[in-house]
Structure formats: structure tokens, C-alpha cells
Amino acid sequence: MRAEATQRVALVFSLLDANGNGVLEAEDFTLMGDRVAAAAPRAGQPAKDAMRAAFDRYWTTLLTELDANGDGVISFEEYTACVLSPERFDATITAFAGALAALGDPDDDGLIERPDFMALMTAIGFERAGIDALFDAFGPTADDLVPVPTWVEGIRDYYAPDKAGIPGDHLVTGAGAGTGPAA
Ligand SMILES: [Ca+2]
Ligand SMILES: [Ca+2]
């Protein structure tokens, strides 16, 4: 696994641990779903419900696939295994990415506006500098818009174990992370 992939996964683990107790459990994904839905006031209720459902599915997949010691929570060590077998998470990540991007496109024109992107990514917990750098790396149009599929692909790349130098790496450097989940 690439070092960049390890750093990306470490960062997202720390953010997904929404209640900050050091492990992932159902409550984290409920909190995160509420937080992210609240960050998209222009989005419709179906899109918000789809986002919460995607977070629920994300948690169920983690519990099913990664709870090696069967204690009902996912430790950091258990979580890192998700990038070792990406094919087991592909459908879940794709659904998650689609739900998030849909939430970021409330006018349904297939394009993401920077303020909507910033609001959602801030709600997840990423740092503003990294979010801006990521949006820039997506190559926005002159009107500062990014196509929905570009973001979806960016989310999928984020979880890829063999990718480096991708737009998502800006989130890690922008957040000053890379020292692990306890940073
Ligand atoms: Ca937790
Ligand atoms: Ca466990």
C-alpha cells in the first residue's frame, strides 16, 4: 500500500470517529449523517435521506467486513484493512460518493459549486485549506464549478491503495495530517 493511501485512510478514520472515542461504531455514522445533511440546507429531503442511508450502509459494510475481533466496533487497525481489499468496498464507496455528490448539487445541474462543496466537506471535518486545494485540483470551470462525476471519481480514488499524487492527497497535506489518527 502506498504511504499516501495510508495517510488518507488515517485521516478519514479520525474524521469518521465523530464522537471521538477512538473507534468506529454506529453512533459515529448517525452523527456524521446528521452533520452532513445539516450542511446542505438547499438539498431536498430525499437527498438527505439518501445520504443518511449511505452512511448507514457504510457502517454496516465496515462491521460486516472488518470487525476482525468481533467486538462490534471498528478499531483503527481493523479499518486500515479496508484499503487492502478495495473490491469488497467498491459498491459501498460508490453509493456513498454518489449520495454525497448529489447532496452537493441541490439544483441538480450536474455541477458542484464551491460553497456547497466547502460546506459538506467542512461538515465531514476536513480543513478549509485542503478543501479549497482539492476543489482547485479537480480543475473547476471558469464559473468555478466541478462536474459531479469528477467528485465521485475523486472519492473513489481517495480509497485506492495504489494511488498517489491524486487530488484527494490535498486533504491530507492541507490538514497537516499524516501522523496518524491521534494527530
Ligand atoms: Ca467513535
Ligand atoms: Ca473490532
Automatic annotation (TrEMBL):
Cited PROSITE patterns: EF_HAND_1, EF_HAND_2
Transmembrane segments: none
Residue ranges occupied by any EF-hand domain in the UniProt entry: 4-39, 54-89
A matching Pfam family: EF-hand_5
SMART domains assigned: EFh (SM00054)
GO molecular function term, any single one: calcium ion binding
Organism domain of life: Bacteria
Record protein name field: Calcium-binding protein
